[in-house]
Amino acid sequence: MADYARIGPTAHVTAYAWHRLGMPYAELFTTPEGARMYWMFRATVEWSTRWLPIPSLLEFLEFRHRLIEAQLDRLEPDRIIELGAGLSRRGITWVLDRQIPYVEIDLPHMTAAKRAMLERGPGRVRRALERNDLELRSTDIFAPGFADELATLLAGAKRPVILSEGMLPYFPFSDAEKLLRNIVAGLRGHGQGGHYLTDLQRADRERKFGPAPQVLRQAINLVTRGQGADRPFRDLEHVDRFFALAGFEGGEELRPRDFQDREPRLQTLRSPTSIWLARVGASG
Predict the structure, then answer these.
(1) Inter-axis angle of helices 123-130 and 108-119, to 10 degrees?
(2) Which of 144, 198, 250, 272 lies in disulfide reach of 213, CB 3.0 to 4.6 Å?
(3) Which strands form 134-138's sheet, in the order they lie side by side?
(4) What three-state secondary structure class fits 87?
């Protein structure tokens, strides 16, 4: 099994960032570890680079989160599966505020921690967990059998979306390929097809931001004790080919300006991150 336990510490930072931004239900998932790493980053890296044209950590994370949310809203899914869900507030938000069934998949220790947080939440949060409207699962997303598990979880859905945030860039390309093939097989196996929505890094896009991406990458490595992302894709052609070879039938990079009416904050946020939407058509 691929070593994706190293992603865990960053989940605490992002959960605290959503809380700082005042996002719905984010207060359920804040931890002392997340607050410590967030403020350590602010006090060291962001203070020392305040005169450089570098997006703040909060801006970097907010851009990614809001653009994924805007596209998810546009797709109008009837079922969502989030891989590496960590301590994200998205699942409980879509269940309670939009009544969309949601499955979160992560490592056993992350799933157990999140379940405990939800069980301490208000009554409507606990009831969503008890009714399994929000399902928390632990499984090996790289195992060959994961494709069949996905197909089962998607059964009956007509507009399913599988997504990941802050996960794919941490994997070497060999592991990312295994995961993408599992996602394609799962979407095909349930018969209706669907979409995969994820963030990723492109070297050519990062170069347009000057030193910012490298500074952010090194800083995240420092604050999270080496839990940083792997190397980025070369360019848009590399991304498109990589996803096509995994079996996706189409894909596109999202443009923030296309979502400005739906999410006005995207007009002012800056980030070297790319958000990619890949598609698998219905079988038959």
Answers:
(1) 130
(2) 272
(3) 134-138, 102-106, 79-83, 160-164, 194-201, 273-280, 250-253
(4) coil
CA-CA distances (angstroms) from residue 5 to 29, 48, 113, 136? 19, 30, 14, 17
Winning range, highest mean pLDDT, from 20-24, 43-47, 217-221: 20-24
| CA distance linking residue 194 with residue 26, whole number of Å | 28
SS3 253: strand
| Pairwise CA distance, residues 223 & 37, whole Å | 6
Q: Write down the mean pLDDT value for the chain.
A: 88
CA distances to 1, 153, 166, 219, 225 from 7, in Å: 14, 24, 8, 15, 11
**Cβ neighbours, 10 Å, residue 177:** 16
For CA atoms 85, 103, 255, 65, give the dihedral sign.
negative
Residue-wise pLDDT for 123-164, tens only, equals 999 999 999 999 999 999 999 899 999 999 999 999 999 999
Residue 260 pLDDT: 86
Sort residue 196 into left (φ over 0), alpha (ψ -120 to 50) or beta.
beta
CA-CA distance, 190 to 50, in Å (whole number)? 49
Alpha carbon distance 187, 199 (integer Å): 19
DSSP letter at 161 equals E
Q: Which residue type sits at 263?
A: E
- Three-class DSSP category at 191: coil
d(CA 39, CA 13): 9
For residues 252 and 250, give the distance between their C-alpha atoms in angstroms, rounded to a whole number: 7
201-226: pLDDT as tens digits = 998 888 876 666 566 666 555 554 54
User: Residue 1 pLDDT more than 50?
Assistant: no
Q: Which of 55, 56, 77 is nearest to 197 (CA)?
A: 77
